[in-house]
Amino acid sequence: MASSSLGFAESRQRRTAQVLLFVTPALFTANMLLARATADFIPPVALAELRWTGVVLVLLPFCGRELWRARAALRRDWARYALLGLLGMGICGAGVYHGAATTTATNIGLIYAVSPVIIILLSRAMFGERLSRRQGLGAALALTGVLVIVLRGDPAALLSLSFSTGDLMILGAAISWALYTVLLKRWPDPLGVQARLTAIALAGAILLVPLLGWELASRGAPHFDLRTIATVLTLVLVPGVGAYATYSYITEHLGPSRTGLLLYLSPVYTAVLAWLLLGEAFALYHWLGAALVLPGLFFATHKPKTT
């Protein structure tokens, strides 16, 4: 009876994770949209520092006691939290904000579409994780759908792509995110999702302080008005607390390779948000890309029942 209840709970958690797989990319998309929208009035390191300090302040009242009880484990594994904070909040925070100001949306979509592939390669190289043929087919379908969208249905667009310093920073952030995802799953942790995110975010915020000092000296402090405050609050609650917490939950229950596949949905969501918020036309290639990405994600993440 106990094993049956445990199996039911695990099955329910997996189903929840599969649902969140389609919700989380929308939360991450908000981060990129705001990064591009605020590049002219909030410096990148300051934006990242405000975001992750805010995440810590929001979550600490809910998990402070858990962190205090686990203080011995935090002292023992501080290097792991520091590395995760550097990868997930430092490089993927300030790096993305800096790169987003000097590259195109098409290039960002194309570069980040490679992240799930990097996650799969790192998982295999570092831990021997393998995808089944069914999951590999799903990943290939999803990647094809992403390419259809970012190239606007024109393969010849590959020939006209150019790469800037911003592109290289986005590529570095994509690699950093892939490594963060793999290590997040493979390193055991006694903390719950909220407490672990708080510890990692705090480590990332601390590591950003030297860069913040340099940025303040060279560019000055951001001007705090209603626009800045609204931007920071949105970043804290949506792509900060929301996206990272759900991402951690999905990684725990589906594994890093499958979790990384949610990044394939970002170009689809970006196109939908541009249609809803900016009035841009939803073209045929958007529908075709979505028709490949969505079933691809299903095949890549869904395990058929065994009898």
List the helices and strands and how they pair.
Elements: H1 2-37, H2 44-69, H3 71-76, H4 78-100, H5 105-112, H6 115-127, H7 133-150, H8 165-186, H9 193-219, H10 226-254, H11 256-260, H12 266-278, H13 284-301
Helix pairs in contact: 1-10, 1-12, 2-4, 2-9, 2-10, 4-8, 4-9, 5-8, 6-8, 7-13
Write a structural description.
This protein has 307 residues and is mostly helical. Helices cover 79% and strands 0% of the residues. The protein has helices at 2-37, 44-69, 71-76, 78-100, 105-112, 115-127, 133-150, 165-186, 193-219, 226-254, 256-260, 266-278, 284-301. Helix 2 (44-69) crosses helix 10 (226-254) and helix 7 (133-150) runs antiparallel to helix 13 (284-301). The chain is globular and about 50 Å long. The mean pLDDT is 81.
SSE sequence, one letter per element? HHHHHHHHHHHHH
Please indicate the percent range of residues in DSSP E strands (runs of 2 or more). under 5%
Poorly predicted ranges: none
Shape designation: globular
Summed up, the helix count is 13
Mean pLDDT: 81
Largest sheet: none
User: What is the radius of gyration?
Assistant: 19 Å
Whole-Å distance between the termini?
A: 19 Å
**Total strand segments:** 0
The proportion of residues forming helix, as a percent range, comes to over 70%
Structural class: mainly alpha
Spell out the key features of this protein.
307 residues, mainly alpha, 13 helices
Provide a brief overview of the structure:
This protein is mainly alpha-helical and 307 residues long.
